[in-house]
């Protein structure tokens, strides 16, 4: 990397120089600029037209609706509306609290998981909820927090502990806490797995050398663990856009109507107030929301520019750096924590499955203690058109996944491997686009697709998903392409023939698993979606998420079949993610460890 | 309101469109937001139309946000359907004034409707915009016969169901059945609360040369700071805040959706009575308790007439064609009404439909009540509101009423809660700032 260790270098850099025996990265011919732009063009067209343009329109709307010319009236109106102001502040609180909790608890559990045997069980359990639709999480937690003690586990426990007047988790006072707990349940696995992989990848040699050089444990934390912590935290903050958009499903499905204002975040607020007399202030709020999200992605970009390079991660080896011994107080403590986490993570899922094994009438009359039956599954599977809904949703999700990879793959190849001029700026745009939630650009997006005479068609549905999916997929694949070394490429080329035209077989061999993983993630995203379906599902298609949301209106008298439908809805993404889990982790790791420097160091 | 949303719910599988693919004739496209039994009945209606005229009809179900959202998008795209079904008459006014609707000669399409239903269907001079499909009765209190009037030698717990508001208050204050609270209210759904409010408003409303006070509230810039609104809210607040009125208190009622409140009465027997429309009966049937629910009409308030709140679905024509006009005129016939009645829905108020016999005696009674000349018949107000008062979860009139409910059941003095609610209504209409 650098020429020679200088006396003022950080200990970690010195070690890296010792470690850095791999080939240099920049020994290729000049970037093929024109080819790169060609590969970028299709993705740019879709994202530019259906994401960037509606976003610009939202900004323009916020400054012009209800004004003569340009004014800030919509911003002051939004701020003076207590409902809107609280939604904005709550969104800010989410953007801070969720990454902080995920980072802190995730790091703790990752460390703990290294100190116990068979930590794989814990990891799988933690990761599985991430594959579930947010709607399924919401249903599981609605069961958990049901205000009726004969159905809600938490209510039953608290009313036994505190007394009859236990505060209701879904009431206005605790609703944000209830939503966040569901959120952490869903996404903690991400942070644990990423931390765990990174911790595993730190060569013990580095630790001992820093110890030898400085003689202080603290220095190890300072030079090795702290940068890792920062990077993963940054990754989680960078996903704040995704999280923000997802809190929408949670609020709609978990929170009873009367409590919704008390937990309302911008995702739902701008959705509800985006049209009609409140369109101007809603546009202003969308712009503020953009600003918050854009700020959150600046952090990871800065963090990823850090000089420290992560060692290559071998994800095929699981427990490679086992601690020396499994005994003592620390070990027992770790074991206890592990067991507690496993139990906590199992409860909502088991509750959901258990509820699905009751008939609706039994649940309504006797709660969860009623007789078990498969009637609810029978009812869901027997409903007319059920199979059509599943096939339709699956086919659309598959189509979108293939198209997103087809658009994002070449773009990522161009950015990560061909590296044309202006790449840094483009990359920033990609990452910012990846954070744009659909709710913030709803109205202009509907108008744009309407102007293209596509309203109410399958094309509009697919295009909207493409525009929203391409940026994040490009960013993830960029990490994968960016972390390829020329040596790897050369090796592949030798095996498969010359890398003659474009991203040939050689490249594909290297990044094939990454493309597959990105496709699976996109498939799951479309399968699990609610918001895009609400706006754009063509009349021929009733996405499963949407019909489940409709059934939630009958939640109490239909708990059994709602739970059964939720279980059936969740099986597909769960299986998909479990099948592709190795590739997915590798893809995410490439995102963390990839060379995110906007301007590569020239030699 | 929102029978539509409720029933759309059961419809896991509804949205695949029906293509009445008979050959020949002019193909029509109809947009609606129904699912479940309503969609099935509507299909039967349209199948009858296709059989008698030869025009095939394709139903498009508006997913998610409903007919208004779908129509706005399709009008923008220049891809308008032939016919759309609205549950909110306020939409007719808006779409008509934007020039999207085909005006029909009132002489041909009136179908004998009385002035009340005619004006709600969008009457403008000699023109009419809508034809009714079906209606709903929203002024009922439901209870278990076995709890109040057990029979078999046991003394009834009550002489007769309350006829006046004061008797209802008295009954709630001294509920005769041990081990249960008098009222179940699904206050998690704001529309349940607005339906309560509308009934009291309707009963207390007075009419003058400007029309009924109730009707005036539907205007975009209506002033809600009037004695009618204060009085109605005060009475509701007094009833809801009676000690022990609700099975688990107000905070719990606010987490109880409509269907759960039905279960509290007919499944768990934790509450004695439930207020809502004719659509309570199918929910009770879904509980499989084997019990048929009993009901009485919403009592009159003071010396005013009994309130009769109705809702309904109305079809409008968006694209002019002979086939489209013949579908609209078909909807006014008895032939078009029969599938609705068979499915247990109350048919459209055309005089020709009065001879229809429903499968259950209850429905015949309810149909008569809707046309009761001594009652104060009013259309669901929240379906007529516009602008910031349009209701949704946590929004508009729903939000104002659930805040009011939270205040009075949480111990806030009724008078101050009333003032706050009125202020919120006027903030939304722009009268107060």
From TrEMBL, chain A:
The answer to keyword Cell membrane applying to this record is yes
Give the main location. Answer: membrane
Topology with regard to the membrane? Multi-pass membrane protein
Which GO terms of type biological process are on file?
transmembrane transport
Q: Which SUPFAM superfamilies does the record cross-reference, listed alphabetically? A: MetI-like
What positions does the domain ABC transmembrane type-1 occupy?
A: 88-303, 390-580
Q: Which GO terms describe its cellular component?
A: plasma membrane
**What are the record keywords, sorted?**
Cell membrane, Membrane, Transmembrane, Transmembrane helix, Transport
Q: Where in the cell is it found?
A: Cell membrane
Name of the molecule in the record: ABC transmembrane type-1 domain-containing protein
Automatic annotation (TrEMBL), chain B:
Its protein name is Sugar ABC transporter substrate-binding protein
Q: What is the lineage of its organism?
A: Bacteria, Bacillati, Actinomycetota, Actinomycetes, Micromonosporales
Note whether Transport occurs among the keywords. Answer: yes
Q: Signal peptide position in this chain?
A: 1-22
Q: Which domain of life is it from?
A: Bacteria
**Coiled-coil region list:** none
Family to which the UniProt record says this protein belongs: Belongs to the bacterial solute-binding protein 1 family.
Entry's Gene3D superfamilies? Periplasmic binding protein-like II
Pfam families linked to this entry: SBP_bac_1
Q: Does the keyword Signal apply?
A: yes
| Keywords, comma-separated and alphabetical | Signal, Transport
PANTHER family in alphabetical order = ARABINOSE-BINDING PROTEIN-RELATED, OSMOPROTECTIVE COMPOUNDS-BINDING PROTEIN GGTB
